[in-house]
Amino acid sequence: MQGFLLRHGRIYSGKKGWTVANRRWLTAVRFDHPAQQIVFQDYVDAVGDAEKRAERLTAQIADLLPSWSLAPVVEAIQSMRRVAFIVAVTVVAEGRGFPTVRQSASADSISRAHTLRAFERSHRSPRRDHESRQWSRPKGLDRRCPELPHAGSRQP
């Protein structure tokens, strides 16, 4: 929707999008051509439908949470830095395979360990991850030179 508005010169002057003021502005946006108005209204409806679907899924997850064995971990993560409910559930669900959880471990120690691993992953240098994918070439030659082999190639 934002791309559509931008292509047609409709630019929101507020500081933040998806606020009450932005929604009010969207209700006032009108297009001269009926086809453009139909497409715009379809975008508005799609955003509303997606929000409703997200609310429904969040409510279903909230209903299932008490029966989940990792519910205390979700609560601990939520309390650490006022993390939103769905973010905490997602963090725990995605990290389920990484930690080895012992029966005697407390939810607080589990959440601290998970947070530390997440911090380490987010602050890892992206350069290290991609060093092995760099081309090996003599200095001064252009990277697009076709006669140079890729890194790891056994050609002389």
Quick overview:
The chain has 156 residues and is mostly helical.
Structural class: mainly alpha
The chain-level mean pLDDT equals 77
The outline comes out as elongated
Uncertain ranges: 97-105
Strand content: under 5%
Q: What's the total count of β strands? A: 0
Structure description:
By secondary structure, the protein is an all-alpha fold. The protein has two domains: 1-57, no CATH class; 68-120. The chain contains seven helices and no strands. The chain has helices spanning 2-7, 20-28, 34-64, 71-80, 85-94, 107-122, 126-130. α4 packs across α5 and α4 packs across α6. Residues 97-105 have low confidence and may be disordered.
Give structural attributes.
single chain; 156 residues; mainly alpha; 2 domains; 7 helices
Layout of SSEs?
Layout: H1 2-7, H2 20-28, H3 34-64, H4 71-80, H5 85-94, H6 107-122, H7 126-130
Helix pairs in contact: 4-5, 4-6
